[in-house]
Amino acid sequence: MVLGNTLNVCTARKRGRPKELSTAERETAILDAAEILLAKSGLKGASMAAIAKAAGMSKRTVYEVFPCRAALFEACIRRIRLSFVKPLDDETRKRPLRERLLALFDPETRVANIAGPKAVLRAVVVEAHAHPDLGQIFLREGPNISRAIVRDELVRAQQAGEITLPDPDLSAMMLCDMVFENPIDHLVDVDRPPLNEETAKQRLNVALDIFLNGCRSGTASA
């Protein structure tokens, strides 16, 4: 009887034991916590200890996933960037250029989760002077790689004879500036509402109309 009771207790404990998270699940939980802390407390408040506590993990577990805060911040920016510019898969690359660019800049995920990126950007701008290394990570993993992804797609289109570009890097930068809202508006006016999905898609289509018509006109200066 004692053995039976002991077995029942052990079974109950086993059933009640928290599920062990996979590495990917731990990474997601840590990044979620980091974004929340960055939004609430800025870079100063987003220490590894604070992130671990917010994620419900030990600091040791956080360091097992991310060896340092810079690596964690880099992953955070990379995840945000993927909601703005999505690299295309092989199947999508077979579509006409306009469809490829629509997929590249698809605003659905970006609009649904815009509060996090806005808060992170505000934290970086406020504290970049005190944390220049994190500011450089933001630029490298955010705007710079986003523009590089767009540039590579435009270069492929030019090589296929779909468009004519005088300068792929400058063209990619200008297209991104046309597609995305100016972040200064949101940094200065903290209560400014983000674009809804319908308006974001309308802006994207107008930007592509202007950009592609210009690239195909053959009147661009060398």
UniProtKB/TrEMBL annotation:
Top-rank lineage group of the source organism: Bacteria
Gene3D superfamilies: Tetracycline Repressor, domain 2 (1.10.357.10)
Domain HTH tetR-type span(s) in chain numbering: 24-84
Keyword annotations: DNA-binding
DNA-binding region per Swiss-Prot/TrEMBL record: 47-66
GO molecular function, one term: DNA-binding transcription factor activity
One Pfam family hit: TetR_N
SUPFAM superfamilies xrefs: Homeodomain-like (SSF46689), Tetracyclin repressor-like, C-terminal domain (SSF48498)
Stored InterPro entries: Homeodomain-like_sf, HTH-type_TetR-like_transc_reg, HTH_TetR, Tet_transcr_reg_TetR-rel_C_sf, TetR_C_Proteobacteria
Name recorded for this polypeptide: TetR/AcrR family transcriptional regulator
